[in-house]
């Protein structure tokens, strides 16, 4: 089997990281010392544990027989999906390995995760599923590998879909679940439209954000959006990355959530970057 050169593969999150902070991008993907061991810098955070658990529970839920797709069913799925990205072998309660201060903190986050899943069940019944991620949520990188597609000479794109539905006219709708704040990038949905069309050879006419905290859906009709224009836009962003000479820090309040604080020259220089923006 041919070895995959992941340095030539770009996802939406990878492109987004470059826009957010060039230094963080360099640490994650280019630094010859840090990049190969970047997982050693990962910090457990409660919102990350919550996000992966809710997404994982939804995936498991859609693999259930239809008659078991109930609130009780999704509760059991959340129990299975409640694990730490740092130590997936640890049984709940996760404690610090899940980014929680104490048991009460973890209980609050778990309860809120269940509330968001309940909102999903309120939003819709019996969706016309076309694609859901693999059932093995503990080792889901295969989903990413399966979606790799060439975009240009020596350039590939990939990503993970939360869910894809088939609409009545035969076209597809790509859905992205959001467990955090009610915002999202339209470029993300354009990226997924192109990626889905390349993988499934089927037109994507709609892309949607499902905001699980509020139970709201934000849907976009992209039937007339030219996929070739999306391709040009993606290639332009990749070209900008390749032309970059200096991957310098870009300090913002988001630095508080960066895993590379202890080795970032900007963070160490200022001691506490948050003071600059207080």
Structure keywords:
single chain, 278 residues, alpha/beta, 2 domains, five-stranded mixed β-sheet, 8 strands, PDDEXK_AddAB-type, PDDEXK-like_dom_sf, PD-(D/E)XK endonuclease-like domain-containing protein
Characterize the structure shown.
- With 278 residues, the chain is an alpha/beta fold.
- The protein has two domains: 29-126, no CATH class; 128-247, no CATH class.
- 40% of the residues lie in helices and 13% in strands.
- It has nine helices and eight strands.
- It has helices spanning 12-20, 22-30, 46-62, 71-81, 103-123, 141-146, 186-200, 227-243, 265-270; strands at 9-10, 129-131, 149-152, 155-157, 163-166, 172-178, 204-211, 216-221.
- The protein has a five-stranded mixed β-sheet. A three-stranded mixed β-sheet has the order 1-4-3.
- Helix 7 links the parallel strand 6 and strand 7 (204-211).
- Helix 3 (46-62) packs parallel to helix 5 (103-123).
Q: How would you characterize the largest beta sheet? A: 5 strands, mixed
Gyration radius (Cα, Å) is 20 Å
Distance between the termini: 52 Å
Strand content: 5-15%
Shape: globular
The low-confidence runs, each spanning 5 or more residues with pLDDT under 50, are 273-278
Counted beta strands: 8
Helix/strand/pairing class, anyone?
alpha/beta
Average predicted confidence as pLDDT: 93
User: How many alpha or pi helices?
Assistant: 9
Total count of domains: 2
Q: Strands of the largest sheet, in order across it?
A: 2-5-6-7-8
Give me the secondary-structure topology:
Elements: E1 9-10, H1 12-20, H2 22-30, H3 46-62, H4 71-81, H5 103-123, E2 129-131, H6 141-146, E3 149-152, E4 155-157, E5 163-166, E6 172-178, H7 186-200, E7 204-211, E8 216-221, H8 227-243, H9 265-270
Parallel strand pairs: 1-4, 6-7
Antiparallel strand pairs: 2-5, 3-4, 5-6, 7-8
Helix pairs in contact: 1-2, 3-4, 3-5, 4-5, 7-8
